[in-house]
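Follow-up to my post from last week.
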Amino acid sequence: MTDRPGPAADKTPSQLAMDEAEGLAVEPVTQWHLFKARFTRHRLAMLSAAVLGVIVLLAVFADLLPLHNPTEQLEDETGRIVNLFSPRADYPFGTDQIGQDVLARVIYGGRTSLTVAGLTGLMVASFGTLVGSIAGYYGGWVDTLLMRITDLILSLPLLPVAIVAAAWLREAFEGREALSLAILLGTLLWGTLARIVRAEFLSLREKEFVEAARAAGARDRRIIFRHILPNAMSPIIVNATLVIGIAIILEAALSFLGFGVRPPTPAWGQMAANGGRLAVGGSGAWWLVLFPSVALITTVLSVNFLGDGLRDALDPTQTIERK
Amino acid sequence: MSDPLLEVSNLRTYFSTEEGIVRAVDGLSFTIHKGEKFGVVGESGCGKSVTALSVMRLIEAPAGEIVTGEILFKGENLLNVSDEEMRKVRGGQIAMIFQDPMTALNPVYTVGNQLIETVMLHQRVGKSEAFDISVQALDDVHIPNPQERMEDYPHQLSGGMRQRVMIAMGLSCDPDLLIADEPTTALDVTTQAQILDLMLSLTEERDTAVMLITHDLGVVAGFCDMIQVMYAGRMAERGTTNFIFDETYHPYTAGLLGSMTRLDEVREERLYSIRGAPPSLIDPPGGCRFRARCDFAQEVCRSDTPLPRELSEGHWAACHFSPDLDLARMRAEEPVG
Amino acid sequence: MLQYVVRRLVYGLITLLALSIITFTLLQNTGGDPLDRIKANPRIPQETVQQMAEFYGLDQPAPKQYLTWASNFVQFWNYPTAWGRSFQGPQQVQELVINRLGGTARLMFTALGLAVMIGIPLGIYQAIKQYSFLDQATTTFSFVTFSTPIFVIGIGLQIILALKLEQWTGVKLFYTSGMNSTNYGDLSFGARIGDTLQHLFLPAISIALISIATYSRYQRASMLEVLHSDYLRTAKAKGLSQRNVIVKHALRNALIPVITLISLDIAGILGGAVITETIFGWPGMGRLYIQAIGINDWPIVMAVVMLIGFMVVVMNLLADLAYGWLDPRVRYD
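User reply:
Got it. Predicted complex:
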């Protein structure tokens, strides 16, 4: 019996390393690794992140670029106003009907549109998260009340209400239209996120680690912010990203109807809308509608792809939810 | 032993994923005889279910594909028959029931609707006759008031009841082989025993062969005549239930047995646990796939793939050192305390 | 069941009440008196302005004005005076709005029909042939479409399918403005249908495109989920043909979530109509709405908002009932 091989002595480190190299041993994978692996596989999302980065940088550092003043009526050497010039070396995107440089307006317009969208995203993320977590964590009548309000907001016809509210807010915030639009859109768009966060909280608050924290005497605020919220971050990030895209689209729609950002401040939706009217009116000035539209669509498309990639990477089980 | 019913030889089923090709089943051969109760045991991801789905030809193309092999059912290679003929085999001659009875029935149709559909698909009967056969099938699986249950939707039944419906559906056309993929895993313990007893008595009565897939050696112990232990897409050991339990040849089987709690013996020693997790089946290296987790691994396990060898009558194992390992030590590690 | 419908209707009424209060309050606070233009006219004496304000009830405090408006509004059977009078002239608001309702309804139902008939089969096909060329092309199309403001789509279609097409081929296939040609009355029956369709197509498809993108995307996701479900595997294991598996077992389950989506999209379609009607000079409620807001003719604004809100409430209820009809797991309590 002594010649039977018994259990081998513990493996040497080099043997373990070899097993690992051959793919036979399984190493633990962290959430971050999983996220990175899944996100980098989403090539479109990677590309979109890069495109968005460039657009944001252009908007932020517009002042440093060699651009015309976006709100100045430009003149040629003879003092004539250069209105409706088609794209050429001096004016790569052409000029508009009152002689402003379209390239400069597109880049500065990005500043306006991105400010509106970014502020809206922030508002939705903070307000939706707050309402959703309170409703989901406390339950009972607090939940019922908050969710009734949420349902009410969600069942309002978005655009008609937005138009009426925009007409009012614009006067209340005279001169700060970006801010007024962000407040308007933020107020109308937080409902979906609040519902998602509430659902997350409802399931997370029953989990063992929350019980454990509670048993250890943690206060509600600590449990909400330190224990539950980090676990509910994925849908919050994804939804806030998608809201940014929706905000840009809605800003454009409101601008088209004349309730958005007013000239001379440039914004993409407003430029495309006014340019579009001129183009259909037979001026043939296609550049007035094309460039701002392309900037807008590229941005929203990137945001949507990015949101899609983030969702796949952060929360592969979540099915797509309505924008 | 009676005639062979299902003969699988050298089956390889691969899935292409973004990370690479997963060799889920990689050269598997086995035979199930008429009326035999055949258990397939292994950890999750060892290829048990893929084997079953391959036999049913339900591997989802284009990701999954049966690359090579032969699946002879009553002498006919199922991999060569037309889709039309295969549909007659499915549900008619080979029936399959699945792990989670909560999701295996279509939620928007009544139990009766789904049973009658199966009956009419494989038997030349009219609707009213199919209804009677279905009621009888529900009665056979001891569902009370079968006539009324026909009108119920799946969500109105408990998990155990739904699994009974699945069994009724599987046996309604009197198949020669019933494939049961973890049929009791999702059920609570008392229901598990009832369902297993029911399956055993019904299939004994009809002399139906059963391929029972499970990760639980306890489940196969009382049910099966023959047990095949699988690891990483390959067979580790196969033999009669007595052989597997009492004359274990493969360290993996021994590990599974050592990690099993048994009610019929008093243990003084600690439960054994196999270290690590099953390997990824994407481009697995040569040699023995169990070696990284094996207490007995030697250099040869790295260099040579152990082929299945028949070490005694009907008892196969795929290990270089079988039957010369001191496997008893794994079942009796140092006493607790 | 009945109890459920009643409760839903009560919630619907509360929503409409809140909608009316919110809209009314916002309109009150939006600067600009409805009579501004009249006041600005130096030839109209102060006295007349005062009389007009009294006539319209504008001299009353806002809550009183709201109550008067609301109590008249709900008595919609007092046609045509129930919804008040426009500040712009002698028209009764109810008459104005009801006249425009048909235009919006025509646009909305055509767009909805197109979206359902194209979007849903497209999504199903995409799921069945996942990763095929058409699947990938539709996915790209969907992403681009719902990243594009509807007015850009509308204007783009106008330029390409109407203006440029006519320039290049000399054929006037689509009209860019109005609901019918001016000589509509003189046309034969067949020509009338043709004329109607030529006017309807571009605005309807502008609205429908976004919904097609949304529906196909959701239908694809929902169908894929069903195709990978256990019960579908059961159906295949029973020996059902591929066709039966999809038509009987997959389709009904996959449609259930999309029904809810469509009902929620009604509000989106009506919102899209507001913009599209403006682009295509379509005589519907949306254009009326925009014009009325511009001059703070609030009885019109209120009437349109309430009608849109009403349609959304009704469609949501219908969708819930359809949901319950398709899915036996749903219980109304």
